[in-house]
Structure formats: C-alpha cells, structure tokens
Specification:
The structure holds two protein chains of two kinds. Chain A is α/β, with parallel strands linked by helices. Chain A has ten helices and 14 strands. Chain A has two domains: about 220 residues, Rossmann fold (3-Layer(aba) Sandwich), CATH 3.40.50.300; about 45 residues. In chain B, a hairpin with a 2-residue loop joins strand 2 and strand 3. The chains are: A alpha/beta, B mainly alpha.
Chain lengths: ~280, ~260
C-alpha cells in the first residue's frame, strides 16, 4: 500500500526535516509514526498525501508516486488533520454533506457516522458552538466520510475525554476490520500500543526503530518481576529479572509459603523504549 | 452507504462560499450599490455621467469582487479548509472558478446597468415599455459585449486578488495587502479618469474595460474597430495573464502554502 525508500526532505533554505526514511505499510495494517513535536511526523504525512511534492528518494502510495498523484488517488484517501478542517458556520450535518458531495465514489451515510461518534444530538448545531473534543470527532468523520481505503490520522485522540477516546479507538479498529489501511501519527504511546500493528520511532527526522510495539518493548531488555512480602512485621520489596526467577530462592520460598502480598511485572512501556532508543522524550 | 452527490464539487464550493460569507456578500448588493452611485453622478454631473459611469462601475466591480472572493479564501485558510479541499481532489481550476462564479453573476448584472446608465440609447423605454426593436437592431450586441467584458473584468480581479491571499497568513495581513491592491487598482483608473491627458492608454483592467464598454461605436453597425484594437488586445492579454496568476495561486493555496498544517 505504501512504499517509502531513502526519503529525504528539507524546507526551502532550512535544515533537513527528514533523512533516509525507509519503510513499507501493508494493506489492512495500522502503522504508527511516533515522535515528539518537531520530529517530522506531519511533514512525512504531508509528503505521503502529496502536499509536499518536492522531496528526494522514493515515496509511493497505492502505486502512485507522491509527487504526481492522480485524481483517483484522492477519492480513495481520507486525512484527519490535526487542526480541525471544518466550516464553522455550517452545522455538523452540513459539513459532512458538503465534503461528501466532493466525491464520486460511494460514501458513508452521514447520520450513521454522527451516531457512531456520538454527535447525533448535535447534528444540527453550528460547529462554532462545538467543544474541542466534538470538533475532533467531527473532523474524524469528515476524513472518513468518503469510505477511503487508506486513512491518515494525525493525533486522532488529541483533546478527547477517555470515553470518547475509547470510542474513537473502537471505530479505528472497526475500520481496520473492514480492510482499511491506517497510518497514524501520535505522541501518545498508549494509543500506539492499543491500535498499531507496527510503529516507527521518528527522531530528528530519522527512523530510530521500527517494529511491533511488543517486540520493541522486548528488545530493550528483560522485564523485571517485583514482589512484596511481610518479614517480621515489616513489608519488604524485591525485584528479579523475569528470565531469572527460577534462580531466586527467596521468591521460591515465599511462593511455597504463600507469603507474597503483591506481585507484578514492570515491563518498559513504549515511552521508556523511545527514550532508550532515541535518547529523547516521546511526550512533548 | 450510498453514492455521494457526484460531479458537483464546483456547485458545492460555490454554495459553501455563499454560506460562509453570509448575507453581506450577496451578489445582488453590488449592482444595486453601483447603480446608486452612478445615479448620483448622473444627478450631480449630468454632462459627464456617460463618460464616468462605466468606468466607475468597472472599478467598483474590480474592488468589490476581489474583496468578496478573497474574504472567502481567507476564511477557508484560517479554518484549515484548503488542505482538506486539496485532499478531496478539488482541482485548482475548479476552485478558482468557483470563487469567480459569484463575481460573474454580479458582473453580468453590472454590465447591463453600465449600458443602461452609461448610454440610455442602448435600452430605450417608450411609453413605459422597453423598445425591443431598437435592441435587436444593433444595440443587443453592445449589451452582450458590455456584460461579457464586465464578467471578464471581475474574473481578472478575483484572479489577481488570489495573490495576496496566497501570501498572507492572517486576515489582518490580507487587509493591508488588500488596501495596497486597491490603490494599485484604483489609482491608475482614477488618474485616467481625472487627468487632462488623453485617456485609455493605461495597461489596467478597469481602465481598459471601462473604455471598451463606453465606446459608442463598439459593435454597432457603425463599428470601427481600429481605435479599439489595442485596448481590446491588451485586455485579452491581461485576462490571460490574470487567469494564469489565479490558477497558480489557487494551486499554491490548495497545496497548503500558508494553510493549516497537516
């Protein structure tokens, strides 16, 4: 679906924003691009949707070079920009009807989309009266209203409350279930862990690591097991590597004696992995 | 799922512009205001109104339409809609023409008013009714040509006004650029109108259009094209140049230069 090889890009008279970017995305995959603000995530997305045609290397999406995209490309692509792209003076329904009218391919029903995103009650309200979270949801609906095969999401859960974020993630997974390919940029490691089949760490314009979230976590070293127990009335805490628990005699003794009061593994999350791999922080 | 309203993005864009700008932008307001202005001139300067009416309306049109069109563009720019249009597959030509459509409607009406007020001989009213026979005997082509010129003028104005819209990031910046543009548009035209020097030699759309429209010999049976040839050719070249500029600017706008970040 997407093939990028040795991609590099620089804005006019400025330092390179992207260097030696190489990756591929298969159909039906959710691919995450993780990185802090300014890492080049949005620039990479702009190149892939044809907004920045003057790049070096190769970038192909659905068999078309990104510097010369044809009309057929746009009818099969949906983009959820980070900044809501909506008519403030239109209602939610009018916005979706307008953007749907720009496409010739079969589109989703507006009412269905509003219902899925919990906006049915606000369908006939002007967007200018919407909260940030409501605009984010409507912007997502605008991006996918044309029933695209390939969806680009830029920080899709930004500004959403936990309930709405969970609903949004379910919709994204539902789209994946329909065979859609999704590319999302985020600096929210929980979103990436929950949604992405593979993630790429983007740091200073380069891909520092690319793999499944699970493998990236495992690659950084063995997780640890931390357990607590009470000894002479005082709570004690011990930690042992997961791959060496059999050698921990104290743990074996406590297990046999049923004296453990709590036990848990502390695997590194993606944020910690990102810090280890790139030396930078994932959260802004 | 059902099929979207296919093949009508132009109409949708035009409607969106109307909704976005609200009632203040309605195309009907422009011709009415212009006619009121010309009527005042006719009352105050009865001996000069034939010379000034068409030019005045042409200047009104150039300014009014450019302001209306770019107000819509700046609204879209500030709301981050331009990249969304681009990703919807809207072509720069289609976008540009949808922004010119409003101006063209106003221009069509204005073209008629120009000839009505600028040269009453074009549409003669006798005993409370239009003298259609006079129109069909030679003045109808003038009417059509006048309206066509006004449409072309308005399209040129909108195309040129895309330039500051492309360059400016905010409405404030555009307001400043628009003021400069207004001076550039009106200055030569006013000078041409008021100076004692021979008129009609300035390479300017409003001046050229005004001169073409108010020339009494134009496209009548007494037509002598020779004195009009140079202004006509200049205006045609200018129109092509404006369209090229507008097309490039629309492309730049839709490609997100100055628009919302992806």
């Amino acid at each position: 679906m997407i093939q990028v090889e040795n991609l590099h890009f620089a804005y006019r008279r400025k330092e390179p924003v992207l260097q030696e970017i190489t990756f591929g995305v298969s159909q039906g995959e959710i691919f995450g691009i993780l990185g802090p603000s300014g890492a080049g995530k949005s620039t990479l997305m702009k190149i892939l949707i044809g907004l920045l045609p003057r790049y070096g290397g190769t970038a192909m999406v659905m068999g078309q070079h990104c510097d010369s995209l044809k009309a057929s490309f746009f009818s099969r692509v949906g983009v959820d920009f980070e900044v809501p792209s909506l008519f403030e003076r239109f209602t939610a329904r009018e916005n979706l009807e307008f953007f749907r009218s720009l496409y010739s391919r079969p589109c989703f029903q507006v009412d269905d989309m509003l219902h899925q995103l919990g906006l049915t009650q606000h369908a006939d309200q002007k967007v200018s009266s919407f909260s940030k979270g409501m605009k984010t949801r409507l912007n997502f609906a605008r991006a996918v209203v044309n029933n695209p095969d390939l969806i680009f999401l830029d920080e899709p859960t930004e500004g959403l409350d936990p309930t709405s974020a969970a609903a949004m993630k379910n919709i994204i997974l539902g789209l994946k279930g329909q065979g859609k390919t999704i590319v999302m940029t985020t600096h929210n490691m929980q979103d990436a862990t929950d949604l992405c089949d593979r993630v790429a760490f983007l740091s200073a314009g380069r891909i520092a690591a690319l793999d499944t979230p699970r493998r990236l976590v495992m690659k950084t070293g063995a997780a640890h097991l931390t357990y607590t127990y009470v000894d002479n009335g005082v709570e004690q805490t011990r930690t042992t590597p997961l791959n060496r628990t059999a050698e921990d005699n104290v743990l074996s003794f406590l297990l046999k004696a049923n004296r453990i009061t709590s036990i848990h593994t502390d695997e590194p999350d993606l944020s910690k992995v990102f810090t280890q791999v790139t030396g930078g922080r994932l959260e802004p | 799922m059902r099929r979207g309203v296919s093949g009508r993005p132009f109409r949708a864009l035009y409607k969106a512009q109307r909704r976005m700008l609200g009632r203040a932008s309605t195309g009907w307001m422009y011709p009415l205001l212009a006619v009121a202005g010309v009527a005042v001139i006719r009352f105050l300067l009865p001996e000069a109104y034939r010379e000034t009416a068409s030019l005045l309306l042409a200047m009104f049109l150039a300014l009014g339409m450019s302001v209306i069109a770019t107000a819509a563009v700046m609204h879209e720019k500030e709301n981050g809609l331009l990249p969304a249009f681009y990703i919807s597959g809207v072509k720069p030509w289609r976008y540009l023409l949808s922004r010119c459509c409003y101006a063209a409607v106003a221009a069509l009406l204005s073209g008629c008013f120009v000839l009505w007020f600028g040269d009453p001989a074009v549409i003669r009213i006798e005993k409370g009714a239009v003298d259609w026979s006079a129109l069909l005997q030679g003045n109808l082509p003038r009417l059509c040509m006048g309206a066509a010129l006004m449409i072309l003028l308005s399209v040129c104005s909108v195309c040129l006004a895309m330039l500051p819209a492309l360059m400016c990031e905010t409405l404030g910046g555009y307001t400043f650029s628009g003021a400069v543009l207004a001076v550039l548009l009106c200055g030569p035209a006013a000078w041409d109108l008021l100076s004692p020097l021979p008129q009609g030699f300035l390479f300017h759309p409003a001046v050229l259009a005004g001169r073409l429209i108010r020339s009494p010999e134009m496209l009548t049976r007494r037509l002598t094209l020779e004195p009009l040839l140079m202004p006509l050719l200049s205006f045609a070249l200018f129109a092509l140049l404006c369209l090229a500029i507008g097309r490039l600017c629309a492309g730049g706008l839709l490609h997100g230069k100055g628009g919302a970040s992806a």
